[in-house]
Amino acid sequence: MSAIAVEPAPSPAQLRPMREDDLEAVLAIEQRAYAFPWTRGIFRDCLAAGYPAWVLEQDGAVIGYGVLSVAADEAHVLNVCTAPEAQGRGHGRRLLRALLQVARARRAQRVFLEVRPSNAVAIALYHSEGFNEIGRRPRYYPAHEGREDAIVMGMELLPPG
C-alpha cells in the first residue's frame, strides 16, 4: 500500500480592515481581475478619506477586498473583487455582505453600485442579495472597443437586527 499525499485544506478566510500595507496585494488582484484596474492612488485616496475598506485573507494571503463609501443615509459599493483563482467559492458574497453590514451600522438606508452589463456573474450575485437595476449610465466604463455602459443597481437597507 502506498501513501497518498493529501493537500491540507485551506484555513477559513478572515475579514479585516484594509491597511496601506495591503495595497501591493490588493493591486496585484485588481490587475489580474480587471482589464481596466483601479490605481494605487485610488485605493490610497479611499483609505485616506476613511472609506470602509476590507480585505479577505486566507492562509496569510489577501484573496479579496471591498470598498464602500457612506454619506448621509446612502452607501455606495465602490469595488468588490475576489482573486480570479479564488472565485466561485462564496468570497465575493461574503465581502458584499460585510460591506452591507457596515452600511447598516452607519445608518445608511439604501445602497447603490455600478456593474458592467458584461459581468453576468456579479449581476447574478447582486440580484441574489436583493439589488435591483434602477438605471444605466451610458459609456461609464472604459472598454477595449470604446466605452461600456454601467448598470446602476440599488437596494433599500433594513435596520440592523
Features:
alpha+beta; 7-stranded mixed beta sheet; 37% strand; 4 helices; 161 residues; Aminopeptidase
Question: Any overview of this molecule?
Answer:
- Helices cover 27% and strands 37% of the residues.
- The chain has helices at 23-33, 40-48, 91-105, 120-128, and strands at 14-17, 53-58, 61-71, 74-82, 110-115, 132-143, 146-156.
- Strands 1-2-3-4-5-7-6 form a 7-stranded mixed sheet, with helices on both faces.
- The relative contact order is 0.14.
- The mean pLDDT is 92.
- The protein contains 4 helices and 7 strands, in the order βααβββαβαββ.
- It has a single domain (14-156), classed as Gcn5-related N-acetyltransferase (GNAT) (Aminopeptidase, 3-Layer(aba) Sandwich), CATH 3.40.630.30.
- The protein has 161 residues and is an alpha+beta fold.
Q: Kindly state the percentage of residues in helix.
A: 25-40%
What is the total tally of β strands?
7
Gap between N and C termini: 55 Å
CATH architectural category: 3-Layer(aba) Sandwich
> How many separate domains?
1
Estimated structural class: alpha+beta
What's the CATH class, please?
Alpha Beta
